[in-house]
């Protein structure tokens, strides 16, 4: 059959392979709403902590924990229930990108909070986390698209 | 470098789709494969059995609560055969010297 297979048929088969692999990769793609949700939850927690009122802190903590669990569960478990994407589709560069993103969020929020506190501004934690949340809401989708591109590039048949 | 080797068993249209799905996964649930490649339960079972008999896939049956769940994964042999098959397809396209390969 190999001898009889025309180049256009081979190309079509490669296209089919690419599309099927893309279907699996889509399951692992993090939706944009996830980043915005986590960003809002971070701010809710910071506002609660900054209020210094035990009831608000307790409620804010519960909202944060439950919200993060629900959002993460919906993204991670919903996809993984159907198929688990191979880890090696990401590769070390993508892992570094994820760690780098976390570092950038912290690098924005922590110095902002400390600076505000040093200047005696009110609600330093809230504004510090708000700065980090903005980075997360805007940068998360960019990271998500980068991770998707990386997985697509590492599909079978793609040049490494 | 993967040595190109055309695989007739994999190249059958529905099996190519199934194996391609599995190649991107550690494992995939039966329902996901069935819905993705638009096969009936029995047709998918038949194709998976063929691949299983060739040693290309491993079928796992488990329970989530009281619900039975069937999932499948490519074996190392299956993954190697798929990669060789993809290399063979690429070779055919490359030999034609045309930019036929889809992006």
Description:
The complex is a heterodimer of chains A (160) and B (103). The longest helix of chain A is centred in the last third of the chain and has 30 residues. Chain A has 160 residues and is mostly helical. Chain A has 5 helices and 1 strand; from the N terminus they run αααβαα. Chain A is elongated, with a radius of gyration of 21 Å. The two termini of chain A are 28 Å apart. Chain B has 5 helices and 3 strands; from the N terminus they run H-H-E-H-H-E-E-H. The two termini of chain B are 21 Å apart. The mean pLDDT of chain B is 90. The interface between A and B is medium-sized, with 29 and 33 residues.
Low-confidence stretches of chain B: none
Strand content of chain B: 15-25%
Helical content band of chain B: 55-70%
If you average the pLDDT of chain A, what whole number results? 88
- What is the SS-derived class of chain B? alpha+beta
The total of beta strands of chain A comes to 1
Question: Rough shape of chain B?
Answer: elongated
Number of helices of chain A: 5
Task: Find the structural class of chain A using helix and strand composition.
Answer: mainly alpha
Provide the succession of SSEs of chain A: HHHEHH
Characterize the biggest β-sheet of chain B: 3 strands, antiparallel
The portion of residues forming beta strands of chain A comes to under 5%
